[in-house]
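User: New here, any thoughts?
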Amino acid sequence: MDHDSNVVKSLQNSRIKEITKLRKRSCRDERGVLVIEGYREVLRALENKHPVHDLYFCLEFFQGENEPALLQRARDAGCRLIECSAPVFEKIAYRDRPEGLLALGGQVGRELSDMPRRADSLFLVAEAIEKPGNLGSILRSADAAGASGVIVCDPRTDLNNPNTVRASIGTLFAVPVAQADTPGTIDWLNNNNIRIIIASPEAARNYTHIDLRGPVALVVGTEQLGLSKSWIDHADESAMIPMYGQVDSLNVANAATLLLFEAVRQRNSK
C-alpha cells in the first residue's frame, strides 16, 4: 500500500508541533494525553483496550515483521494512523533508537473506589516515588506477580510520564493503578480489611517470616527518606529485608519485587 502522498514530511506540521509540546507534563495534563512509544507498549495498550486515538508511524524504523499487523489492529480499534518521514519521527520520538511507533491515548489512573478487590487481594503501595523508571519497574513487577493493583501515594513523579510507560514495558495498561494521598489510602485499606505491611529497615522481623497471605497491601517508600510517619503508625506489620553488604537499603523497585514474590511464594505453597 502506497502511503507516500499522505506522509507527513514537514517539521513545521501543526500536528508535529503539538506532539513536541507534550514533552511538558503541563501540556499532557491540560490535554489529558498520554504518549505511548514503542511496539510492545502500543501493543499492550491495544490488548488492554486502553483508548488510543492517534498512532504515528515510520516504516524506516520498524524493527521486525509484526508492525503491519499492529497498524491494522490499531485501525480496527478506531485509531487514526499518521505516517511520518524519518526526520519527522525522530523529532517526535523520545527514544534515541526509535521503533517507528508513537501513539497518543488517554491518561491512566483510577479512583481508589474503582480498584478491584478479592478475597486474597495483593496491593503494592508506593509512596513519594521520584523516578518514572522506578515507578515503571514497580508496575512491571506487580503485573508479573499478578497483583490486584498498584496505589501511587503522594507521587513526586508523573504516572503518565512517557518514561513510566517505557519502564513498565506497557504493563501500565495491564495493572489497575490508582493515585491517592496517604491518609485516603490508609482509610480505604482499613475500610476494606486489607492488612498493611510496610517495608522498613528498622523492622524486627524478616519479610519471609511474615504471613503475606489473605488481603494485604505491601507498602514501600523511597530509599532516601523511607516511609512517612503515617504509614509507620498505621502498619499491621513491619517487614525487614536483611542486608549483608555495605549498603543499608535496596532500590525501591527491587524491594517491591522481593516483597511481591514472597507473597506469591506463600500463596502458592501447600
Remarks:
- The radius of gyration is 21 Å.
- The chain has a mean pLDDT of 95.
